[in-house]
Amino acid sequence: MELSLNQATTRPYPLVAIAEAAMRAGIRHIGLWIEPVEEIGMARTKRLLADTGLSVSSVCRAGFVADKEGAELRAAIDGVKRALDLSYDVGSPMLTFIAGGLPAGDRGIRSAELRVRAALEELEPHARAAGVRLALEPLHPLFVGSRSVVTTIAQALRVVAGLPVESVGILIDSYATFWDPNFHDDVAAAGARIAGYQVSDFALPLPTPENMFGRLFPGDGETDFAPLTASIRRAGFTGPVEVEIFNEDIWKLPLETIISRTVDGFKRHVGEPLNELERQPV
Amino acid sequence: MELSLNQATTRPYPLVAIAEAAMRAGIRHIGLWIEPVEEIGMARTKRLLADTGLSVSSVCRAGFVADKEGAELRAAIDGVKRALDLSYDVGSPMLTFIAGGLPAGDRGIRSAELRVRAALEELEPHARAAGVRLALEPLHPLFVGSRSVVTTIAQALRVVAGLPVESVGILIDSYATFWDPNFHDDVAAAGARIAGYQVSDFALPLPTPENMFGRLFPGDGETDFAPLTASIRRAGFTGPVEVEIFNEDIWKLPLETIISRTVDGFKRHVGEPLNELERQPV
Q1: CB-CB neighbors (< 8 A) of A207 in chain B
Q2: Cβ–Cβ < 8 Å for B60, B171
Q3: Which CATH number does the domain housing residue B167 bear?
Q4: Are B200 and B215 in contact (CB under 8 A)?
Q5: Mutation for testing the B interface, residue in A204, A228, A249 having most B CBs under 10 Å
Q6: A54-99: pLDDT as tens digits
Q7: Is B9:B258 a contact under the CB 8 Å cutoff?
Q8: Fewest CB atoms less than 10 Å from the CB: which of A114, A136, A171, B242?
Q9: Which of A158, A209, A223 sits opposite B205 (nearest CB)?
Q10: Full domain range(s) for residue A229
Q11: What ipTM describes this predicted complex?
Q12: Largest Cα span, chain A
């Protein structure tokens, strides 16, 4: 399993500089965000990818449908369609889909889940036509109200159940799910639904006011990545593993430092333990 | 369902002052913490309870066994036994049991769960003899590493499965579980296992450095208490509902203000919606 640098990890830097630094560090995959691609334009993005030899592991992110209705919902759905087209254009196999939080008037999680399901059903033909997989990502329960009513792997599987596995998958992020008492069973059940695997480490305290920004390099927090990664691998996932970190302290570091620490954390806590495991006789 | 004031909500104030203020506010139940009881002594605690007419809904808290072994584990088990005896002495029907976090050397949740189970098995005869129920409380996934490997209702039910329901139950706290996509089904499955129900509200951002201390009065955060409470009631739970809040800003308020806001938040978001529901024809 190879490392992919998710662009968020180096968020303050220009995409061109990130891609070139990643290439120099021997990284072969990148997770792109929509806005920076739009900023430099598709032609320049494609040239950059060709010049650096980077393949795109994912595009982040669209969705946020669970708390919307009417015109707002239509706009969100159209946004996902545009993001699917952009994902196709950059050669990404998938688009990260975030469910969205709970609307003020209805805090019911099951009814919100049905709205997410309805949106995915509507979007699936567009995803299939584009050859880009919608990847529903459970977020940490911290964000159930504000960002994602989908918080567990089992729930994500319930939401996508029955939709074509080629065009709708799930994205498993270690920060969001490492605490889950059913992680290993649910990853096994997910099997071919696993469209992607992202890693970053968790620790308390969370920074305020942005609770989102407490992600750490693998190895700097509470997570034991080896068994998580082993389960993901056993479930059949062989794609690049994205390191995706949101952290204002990390974003203050020089680009090359962020990238070298990403490579190092990934190697020691994700890559090497997995290699060791796979060298063991079955 | 009647309100019980968990002592933590008014933590900086002396137990005697809390109990008398609660009585004056018309509250009939209190959740006690071990340390303040030990501080004023059992005789004085019992006299205070008799004088104020307060019944004890729970004693908080013991456990923290998941990350311990050897002498440390023995000390924790002995601590639970002493807490069970104290609970009996104050007339509490239950003792809150917190699983404990993950030890540095083994971040596996399932193996930690087995240690919690083993401790509960060992403690069950003592609980039965004391006539006090051990109530395993899932905490928010935030605290999986530091405080509780048990984070969901389903997992708590798995840990206590097969142990006598009279002596081992679970405690459901809204702050810890409101986000759970299976809340309603799992509460229904819990049925007579439900030993207690505690409420407080959740909102981001969490305060730092103490992420524990972000609990709010019911109605001040994201939680829709009415459906949660209705499910708890339908599952057969009829005991007092504790308001348990950890919040340094709230602790700075005058005792009477904390109590009147507790009564008000409980009435508007827990008591009245439930009364309304139960007045509706079936």
Answers
A1: 208
A2: no
A3: 3.20.20.150
A4: yes
A5: A204
A6: 999 999 999 999 999 999 999 999 999 999 999 999 999 999 999 9
A7: yes
A8: A114
A9: A209
A10: 3-279
A11: 0.95
A12: 57
